[in-house]
Design brief:
There is one protein chain. With 378 residues, the protein is mainly alpha-helical. It contains 18 helices and no strands. The radius of gyration is 21 Å and the shape is globular. The protein starts with 10 loop residues before the first helix and ends in an 8-residue tail after the last helix.
Amino acid sequence: MTRPALNHLQQLDGVRFIAVALVLFDHWMAGQIELPLGALGVTIFFVLSGFLITRILLSSKDKLKDNPNGGLKKYLKIFYIRRTIRIFPVYYLLLFVLYAVNEPPVRKTFGWLFFYATNLYMAYYHVWMGTVDHLWSLAVEEQFYLFFPLLLFVVPRRWVPLTATLMIVGAVAMRYFLFRARMPWFIGYVTMPACLDSFGLGTIMAFWWLYQRDRFVQVFQNSIWILVSILLFVTVVYMTKILPAIPDPRGWLGHHNVMSDVWERFAGSLIGFFLIGRAVLGFSGPMKWVLENPVSQYLGKISYGLYLYHNFVYNVYHTPPTHFTMRAWRRITDIVPFLNSSYFFQFSYFLALTLLIATLSWYLIEKPINNLKDRFTY
């Protein structure tokens, strides 16, 4: 089949909005609603990355294979330049700002943060990292970008689905091994190889979209599979709650067992798989409005900033009363005491601040720099 153009898929911006909304809701409602919605949002991002990156890499490989000036060097050079332009500037600016204002975990682990090794720090030292906890997922993405483009370049096209299947099976098997070995549960949560089932499903989706379009349409045209995958995820979460917890050898709190530590990410990946696939074809009806309305489109566009900044605006576990956002909130409620009557108002305050910072970041930093990508095409 002829390689389709890499056109912008509008409803995927709406999917980004859903994913980041799940993360923010989970992180700001922790202790009030105990559901793994943040983990689900991150998992959807991983599946989406697997789809988009594979789509780009396989298409560029096809385009460059007969180009005398192409080959591996150009394939990798353009990919990494475009990724660097999109991801690095605002990330490193944030790190240096936080270092300058003496954010404790940033000062302590700056080298790990600088080299996108946050998740490796967590896995090696068996600790969380306070307000920079959430940056583990960005580290996973960057580590995936390091090996996957080279892998796709050397693997023949016909072997890509098998390669993706091995990624899926290997990730689930790794999490099961870590679980059976009674390793701290978050090692299987934050390490890149343990996340490859999400990326693998995205890879399969991209392969079908590029080369087996009829199969893609057949699998994703019926929205019932989204409901089935959601039901499976709910079942896994329910089984997590009713099955006995396995005590963490280092005393970490939480109710963990084989369902939460091995199968939850796979079930969440299936939601991402069927949701993204259906959005690529295009939802109709109410879901079309949810994904395509201007608010969803805009929030999806700035989702990177929303994710990057939200934990520094507020983190239910790590934000002290002396933090500037909390001091500002107390001053506001001194003037309008009614706002303390419900957590809804405080949640809205955190959201407004995060939206403001992410919007300024988008228009002042990200968008101008992102426009440079147009100079580097495959």
